[in-house]
Amino acid sequence: MIDISFIDFLRDLTNPHLDFLARAVGISLIAAIVCGVVGCYVVLRGMAFIGDAVSHAVFPGLAIAFALQTSVLLGGAVAGAVVAVLIAAFSQRNHVRADSIIGIFFAAAFALGMVIISRTDGYSASLTSFLFGSLTGVSRTDITVAASVGLVVLAVVVAFSPQLNTTCLDRETARAMGLPVFALDIILYLCATAAVVISVSTIGNILVLSLLITPAATARLLTANLTTMMFLSAIIGAVCSFFGIYLAWAIDLPAGATIVLTLTVLFLIVWALHPFLRSRRNPGHSSPRVPANASENTPRKETIES
């Protein structure tokens, strides 16, 4: 039962005694927008597993930062970046499949994080916060760092969008054009890492994959235009995050889980309406087209406009 009306929730956001709530909403909106944009590339590349790997890879960094009483955002970013680069490097060789490499690294990273945090005093409450998020665990410094990192990630995506689009839709064509595919892979992995790190505070390490994947997958059902898909994905993530925190606050539920369920419900609604929406979609647009089923091993014939 909803005990707090939406109007009361808006009032609570301006209450100085509940400033942690406004901070939680702020970092959730930042994370949703960044994850929404980066998540489009993750979805189109069939990289949901790499998103899961990155979300687990940041855990040892979070644990080390907690043990040293330093910024968990910085610790998570460093750990995630290291694992992302290792995955990109090992995946360039054909001796072992990329999904196997990802599985090895994300399991090892998560296990390392568990070992580190288990040796730290008072780890139980912090472990719960790391894994499932916390409305009260967001500081003003976290907001500043998340906003700064988010702006950098969005700037990188804009700056490299033609190259990322080409690599995302047709890697063989990208190689034939002389594009540095390996370097672009690292850029994308690092952007995904940054998006995950700034999302951990409110949604948690376990559930962060949903914020990276679900808005983009929902937007993919609504459009075949890559630019529009990114815009819709960011909006969907932001709206569902805001509404999810409202429900969590009003019904006394875990914020991260409520955000994920809100995103999932919207995805299911759009998925159910997709045949009707597709029949009414205007087919006249021709700039960046995205494939219905993009994956690393699927040949792509789509072209995109710079």
UniProtKB/TrEMBL annotation:
Keyword Ribonucleoprotein on entry: no
GO biological process: response to zinc ion; transmembrane transport
Region (Disordered) residue spans: 282-306
Protein topology in the membrane: Multi-pass membrane protein
Subcellular location: Cell membrane; Membrane
Gene3D superfamilies: ABC transporter involved in vitamin B12 uptake, BtuC
Annotated TM spans: 20-44, 64-89, 101-118, 138-160, 181-200, 206-223, 230-249, 255-273
GO cellular component: ATP-binding cassette (ABC) transporter complex
Pfam families per the UniProt record, alphabetical: ABC-3 (PF00950)
Keywords, in A-Z order: Membrane, Transmembrane, Transmembrane helix, Transport
SUPFAM superfamilies: ABC transporter involved in vitamin B12 uptake, BtuC
Record has Transmembrane helix as a keyword: yes
Similarity annotation: Belongs to the ABC-3 integral membrane protein family.
NCBIfam families xref list: anch_rpt_perm
Protein name according to UniProt: Anchored repeat-type ABC transporter permease subunit
Species this protein is from: Corynebacterium macginleyi
